Amino acid sequence: MSVDLSTSFTGIRFPNPFLLSSAPPTESESNILRAFEAGWGGVVTKTIGLHPVVNVAGPKTKFLRYYPELGVSSMNRGRGGVLQSSWNWELISDKTLDWWVPRIGRIKKAFPDRVLIASIMAGSGSDKELDHWRTLATACQEQGADGLELNLSCPHMDREDMGSNIGKDQKLCSGVTQVVKQVAKVPVWAKLTPSTTDIVLEAGAVFTGGGDAVVSSNTFPSLPLIDPETLEFEMNVDGLVSSGGLGGPAILPQSLAKMSQMTRAFPEKSFSGIGGISDFNQALNYFLLGCGTVQVCTAAMLDHAVGPNVVKRLLQGMTEFLEKNASRGWKRLDDFRGLRRDRIVAHSQIRRPADSDYQGGHEPQEGYAEPARA
Ligand SMILES: Cc1cc2nc3c(=O)[nH]c(=O)nc-3n(C[C@H](O)[C@H](O)[C@H](O)COP(=O)(O)O)c2cc1C
């Protein structure tokens, strides 16, 4: 019984639905080439911008692990514990657009059948900034990028007009998407921040602006823990820390909740799921909620920088899943995509014990009789 791992997403043909997300695994040409050799169906490049980027003086990412024998969670006690999350305050690529341009071309020539999505980011506060989006989009697609991912979600920006500050504003989400769509010849995806009250609103704004897909989640705002001995944050520079981004296993359920809100609101639209994926069982959650591709960062960072074993597990897991379900007639992702999307309902729609009368949390309305129906 042959299974087909390939899929079409926003009009792009993928050999498999597993991508490396925009992050350190895709920060260089050599990493991306190694990723494709390992079997990833696509990559989203580390985000490319036009403004100067200077990272903090110290580590940019650490991993929080739980050590059962000590009963503690820490970022500083080695690889022995159980991984809970990644924490980072890394900015976008510190390489310039000029550095990226020839590399995108070379990567596409070396692997024409794999998908390269260029992640781009600029501001929104002036016409000049909006022009930066056009410049970035045009330069990347001219080199053969198969699609563009708009970074509307970087959580580390003090600038009011950039990153997740765009993703928190429906008008800016729409406006920036529209600006890129004016020049784009390839599909445009928008990566939203999970840090808003109702992500359905921002997703709707992206689609209104002409976006072809919504991607979620970027990391969740969070702090590193404080070391109880030194009383210092486990990650700091000169004792100081700022809000950073949580990724990895800890965010899987939260990211699924965000994703399900969007896929239920827009069942006909395209979504790429990210957050806490390290094997097929986790990816399956996103697929069953309606996602057409998934992306991985933390698990890949911890596996030889580009996740050769992670992608092997994903491909094997999906193959075995399709083989196991062949009797249902499932041969490819589209045969089971979205199957559990409609199982998420309002709390009051969940069955109560048979003999009780539940009023959605409201008091029974005493003294009120329904008007008689004619
Ligand atoms: C060190 C680090 C750097 C990242 N840089 C970017 C970036 O430049 N652009 C972007 O869109 N997301 C960036 N991300 C977010 C990831 O692409 C991904 O959305 C997030 O880590 C959740 O996925 P995970 O649970 O698989 O880690 C970064 C994440 C990490 C850990």
Please tell me about this protein's structure:
By secondary structure, the chain is an alpha/beta fold. Helices cover 30% and strands 18% of the residues. The chain is globular and about 75 Å long. It starts with 6 loop residues before the first strand and ends in a 50-residue tail after the last helix. Bound molecules: flavin mononucleotide (FMN). Flavin mononucleotide binds next to strand 8 and helix 9.
Compact description:
This protein is of the alpha/beta class and 374 residues long.
| Radius of gyration using CA atoms only | 22 Å
Question: What number is the mean pLDDT?
Answer: 95
Numbering strands along the chain, what is their spatial order in the largest sheet?
Answer: 3-4-9-10-11-12-15-16
Helix count, DSSP H or I runs of 4 or more residues:
10
Low-confidence stretches are none
Give the helix proportion (percent range): 25-40%
Task: Tell me, briefly, the overall form.
Answer: globular
Largest sheet: 8 strands, parallel, barrel
SS-based class: alpha/beta
Give the distinct bound molecules.
flavin mononucleotide
Order of helices and strands: EEEHEEEEEHEHEHHEHEEEHEHEHH
Oligomeric state of the chains present here: single chain
Question: What distance separates the N and C termini?
Answer: 61 Å
Strand content: 15-25%
Output the keywords.
single chain, 30% helix, 10 helices, 8-stranded parallel barrel, 374 residues, binds flavin mononucleotide, alpha/beta, globular, 5-stranded antiparallel beta sheet
